[in-house]
User: Fold Response regulator from Bradyrhizobium uaiense.
Amino acid sequence: MTVRVLVVDDEEDVEVLFRQQFRRDLRAQRFAMEFAGSAAQALTRITDTGEQTLILILSDINMPGMNGLDMLPEVRARRPDVPVIMITAYGDAETRRTALDRGAKGLLTKPIDFGQLRQVIESRLGQTA
Assistant:
């Protein structure tokens, strides 16, 4: 069984950055990373799991169409078992409160602290072992 992390962001360079930061883990097949360029793609991917177990969703807030905050209630309704961490360049108190009220488990600000994110992923991997 493969465990996976879903990253939702409309910026194409995000995939390159994440794959670079987690290349050893991905090469060792500790987990897989999938990428969705929009909230709509993410909602499709969270329901189509196949032989994989989704352990974490990381989502940008500011995206065209449905933004990350609007996507949150739908994700929580479809996959209440999967924590969602929002990523934003604007980590103000109101954004944080809105994200948490809509079901996010946390909020990371850009530039992303990959050490902190690694700890979150390690924690989730430990819970699925």
Summary: Helices lie at 13-21, 23-27, 39-47, 68-78, 93-101, 114-128. The chain has a mean pLDDT of 92.
